[in-house]
Amino acid sequence: MQNKYKLHYSVRLSTDVSFPADVFADFPGCIPGREMRRAMESRGSCDSEPGLSALTFSFAYIGSGGKRCLPSPISFAFVRNAPAQLRDRMATDQNTDLFERLHYLPRCFVTDPNADSIESVPVKKKTANNQIILSAGQSFIGFIEGAREPIERIADMVRKDSALALGGGSTEVDVLSVTEDAFETELCSDVTVRVLSPLLFRNPYGVYDETEQPIIRAMERILGTAGVFSVKSRYRETCLMHVDGFPASYGTAAGSSFRLVCEEKQDIAKIRHCFIGCGTTDGYGEITVEPTKNLYCRTLSDKREGAE
After folding, report:
1. Strand runs (DSSP E) across 199-307, as ranges?
2. Do residue 140 and residue 159 come from a single domain?
3. What is the span of the domain harbouring residue 212?
């Protein structure tokens, strides 16, 4: 199998930019992959050469400290009388002596969800005429994934001319890095699956499958196994999705999390970060699979200013 390369980029909004509200599914306040693809196509960089149309454009999320923030996991909750005290209900080391009243964490973007201390990063936006308007001055971070040659061509193009018309406004794109996927063996029997962008599966009859089973089957196909994972816990929400080429359907919302276990350890290297389901070239169906971190008590802080 040919290794994939990633072009990690930052896009800074020189002016306000706007997109139809229906492209966001459940998470307004980001730059959807298909909008970045269309912006690149408009300057003739994605259709003019072989291999470019097969690239995957991730959703670009608000940046903080030069890193891409992620949708907050639905398993996160905060203590009612102490909002800085965060709890991850996916963990099994819960202290049953803690009689706390927990509230769902409002949907937001956070820094590393595996850290002990997590920061919530706001997105400056507004809604008008069924459009989501992202305010100027903010920086969003995403990546483009694919074969080496087209990735390097886009990187060279961006370095020569960083200006990009996007969402009816103007932006500046910077290349942060170009990396090659490296699959290092990692055996694990207890994993946490986090959905990083809206995810859609359809059964053979064209109907959305509302269970986590298609996600598990897709993971197992990549690993070349079957029937090895079982669900230990789930925190999942649905969202209405408008994937190009498909009727509007309900999918699995970004931030949904599943904890899976198996009797024998599996090498999760190839599924540690991947895309599954419908519309993956436009950034839908992005997931991470990592060894479960049993950490129930965490802390949460708010970043008051827009991230650079």
Report:
1. 230-235, 238-241, 249-252, 257-267, 273-275, 286-291, 297-302
2. yes
3. 187-291
